[in-house]
Amino acid sequence: MYLSEINNIVDGFIYKDTIINKIRTNSKDITTGDLFIAINKGHEYIDEAINNGAVAIISEIDIQDIPSIRVNSSIEALGKIANFMRNKYNIPLIAITGSVGKTTTKELISLVLSKKYKVLKSMKNNNNHIGVPLTLLNLDDTYDIIVTELGMNHKGEISYLSKICNPNYAVLTNIGTAHIGNLGSKKNILKAKLEILDGMKNGYLIINNNDKYLKKIKYKNIIKVNKKTLKLKNIKCQEKIEFDIKNVHFTFNSYQHLLDDVLLAIKIGMLFNVDLSLISEAICEYQNIDGRLNIIKNKYTIIDDSYNSSFESLIGGLSLLQNKKNFKFIIIGDMLELGKYSKKYHKKINKYLKKINNKQVLLIGNYTKLIKGIHFVNIEELINYLKKHVNYNNIIYIKGSHAMNLGKIKETFN
């Protein structure tokens, strides 16, 4: 591809033309022949990108010693290029959003579809205005399907992402309290999540029909998914989930409150004509993602749910502990971005903790002072306490918003 072709997409001011290989935003990843897009503070790393082999630059400042394009917004340019790439390769794109379970659902859907197709998926949780375009930049003619996750903190963000990726299938997992501090109510959260339709033309909306907000949605091409619509039989939920669909047995080696995510993945597999036995195989192979109910067993059992936290995901995690006989250290950090609802939802956690016996609750953060337990000033103090009191075969459950950095606890005891 020529730099001049990209200039036509981003509508910038071009200085010299050249052939480029790949497009990258990290100067450390640059190899000979690449184009470097300087986003955020990226202009500080232009020299490093050139030294690593960049043959062209997109930047918000003038670059005259190398072929370049000057633009008003590098991030906007990145989005335009990503949209061009998405439409250059006219293949199905599945976009997933929701308050809880986006990444788990994305991973499950990708695993199911990979049984029959070559799938490009967003890595980790690259789900924002930079992560989604970066995923699309990896497209080439070898892929059959794209699976991407769309995240948000404020209204308008999913609309922007949807218009970049132009989904053919939009998947909504649920409507919860995450970011309610920014959006004000669950109704507003629903409106923000429905922005996923803004970039979709004549596509399909697939929803978790167990969610009281989603089940009320009216859309011409809506597919409602739950145990009833998929005709589940012989359901067993203990340490793992088992059920049958059309005489095919399914085993999901994780937790009951993730069942809705599993059913969404199964439905997508059916829509793409993946054999039901292969879908079952994929579901059985799934392993929890690092930081999301990931179980680490050594002399203790660590349930690492520290990647992020919301009210719904925390009570889901706590429900797992109710039937466990081992002594449990329940470590809870603040649930952030709840705004005026922060006190209300932190106080409500006490109700769910009462259902768990044989435990000690260790807390860190400002709002967790509203939860009954032992409160610590910092993570180091909490870790030192845990070192003195944790014993063989105890369970350590870790849950808190990403900014609380509770992953340090897992690293200490792993």
Summary keywords:
single chain; 414 residues; alpha/beta; Udp-n-acetylmuramoylalanyl-d-glutamate--2,6- Diaminopimelate Ligase, Chain: A, domain 1; UDP-N-acetylmuramoyl-L-alanine:D-glutamate ligase; 6-stranded mixed beta sheet; 14 helices; globular
What does it look like?
- This protein is of the alpha/beta class.
- It folds into three domains: 3-72, Udp-n-acetylmuramoylalanyl-d-glutamate--2,6- Diaminopimelate Ligase, Chain: A, domain 1; 89-285, 3-Layer(aba) Sandwich (UDP-N-acetylmuramoyl-L-alanine:D-glutamate ligase); 294-413, Alpha-Beta Complex (Protein-Tyrosine Phosphatase, Chain A), CATH 3.90.190.20.
- The protein has 14 helices and 20 strands.
- The protein has helices at 3-10, 46-51, 74-88, 102-113, 131-136, 157-165, 180-183, 186-193, 259-271, 276-285, 311-321, 342-353, 379-389, 407-413, and strands spanning 13-15, 23-24, 35-37, 56-59, 68-70, 93-97, 119-121, 145-149, 169-172, 204-208, 222-225, 233-237, 241-245, 248-252, 294-297, 301-305, 328-333, 359-364, 374-376, 395-399.
- The strands form four sheets. The chain has a six-stranded parallel beta sheet with strand order 7-8-6-9-10-11. A six-stranded mixed beta sheet has the order 15-16-20-17-18-19, sandwiched between helices. The chain has a five-stranded mixed beta sheet with strand order 1-5-4-3-2.
- The radius of gyration is 23 Å and the shape is globular.
- The chain starts with a helix and ends with a helix.
